[in-house]
Amino acid sequence: MPNSGRVRRLGVSAPSRFAERVRELLKKGGYLEYSLQVLKREDRVVFPLKLDANFSLEIIPPELGAVVVEEEFHERPLAPRSIREALSGVVSPIYLKKLPSSYDIVGDIAVVHIPKGLETIMRLIGDAIMLVNPSVKVVLAEAGPVSGVYRTRGLRHLAGERRTMTTHRENGCIFVVDLERVYFSPRLAGERMRIAKLTGSDEVVADMFAGVGPFSITIAKHAGARVFASEINADAYNLLLRNIEINKVADRVTPFHEDCRTVFTGNQIKVDRIVMNYPSDPFSFLNTALEILKIGGTIHLYGFAEDPEDWRLKIQERVSNLGASCEARVKRLKPISPTRSLLVADIKVHAR
After folding, report:
1. Domain's final residue, options 74, 99, 119
2. Do 136 and 277 share a domain, yes or no?
3. Is 232 helix (H, G, I), strand (E, B) or coil?
């Protein structure tokens, strides 16, 4: 529960116009007590000092007008550390055992899966998430699985502002995302950076299912490679254009609002590396990938499977049936159910 008590403590009082300079000096010296709230007194600001600060006013230039005073400071409210902690004493212990322990945060929007049986308290769960994460302004609940050609999912508003658009930052990139209209997973941030680090600056890359551009833009920005990005969803494509501009990679990323099965071959594009992030149906597009890939190139294929080794053998068999030879390395990225996981295969194609 939040602690709203008061504590008498020494503090440093400074004129408001010099408050930020005084704050920086106190912060640099390790004297500030962050568990107490700063006070405002007409045209002055009072900063609380740590009990064991051993503070001397000599660190502050006299012209800043700072003095040491004794004041009564309010303790800062302590935010709960988890949904369970926030709802302890609010909901039945039976519910506490079932509460979600994790959720995705995209920009300032949290997206949570509500376990079966907790539908009656899901708005309380939304409020709890906002208490745990003060930077979250919207909480949405998953209202179904990712589905359809555009890989979107239904969402239900639980708490905060009523919107699905946000600005997400990762790996030094900025992405405007509309979670109701496009697919985006913040859990792949590390994977996106992994691919960027594998890519050479002289490479040409095809992102066959670009979405709003998280793979394309990360690769272009960090590797400096040339990227051709295909996206069939008009909403995602429009955000892709916007994100290319925001991240200043228009000279390296060429977007296409067309079907990936025809746009690359139609434009006679040959590439060194391909990103195929369409895990619900990865094999239907392998033939196109092999057509546009240079010999010795690499395909990063994403898919859902139970066993990584079985999936690796299936990939090599499928590539062989399409008239090429390859070597595939598979790793597990994240579980999606008790038995299945999202996997990635790095496929080195030797000949066709």
Report:
1. 74
2. no
3. coil
- Give the span between the Cα atoms of 287 and 318, in whole angstroms: 9
Antiparallel, parallel or unpaired: β 271-276 and 6-15: unpaired
- What is the SS3 assignment for 137? coil
- The answer on 135 and 60 residing in a single domain is no
Query: Which ranges constitute the DSSP H helices of the chain?
Result: 19-29, 83-87, 93-98, 122-132, 189-198, 214-223, 234-246, 260-266, 286-292, 308-321
Residues 305 and 223 in one domain: yes
* Nearest-10 crossing angle of helices 189-198, 214-223: 40
DSSP annotation of 182: S
CATH of the domain at 53: 3.30.70.2580
User: How far apart are the C-alpha atoms of 23 and 29, rounded to whole Å?
Assistant: 10
CATH number at residue 132: 3.30.300.110
pLDDT band at 42 (very low <50, low <70, confident <90, very high): confident
- State both tokens at 45: 């600001």
The pLDDT of 229-240, averaged and rounded, is 97
What is the overall mean pLDDT for the chain?
Answer: 93
Claim to verify: residue 282 and residue 200 sit in the same structural domain: yes
- Which domain covers residue 15, as residue numbers? 6-74
At 3, the pLDDT band (50, 70, 90 cuts) reads very low
Tokens standing for residue 113: 């899966």
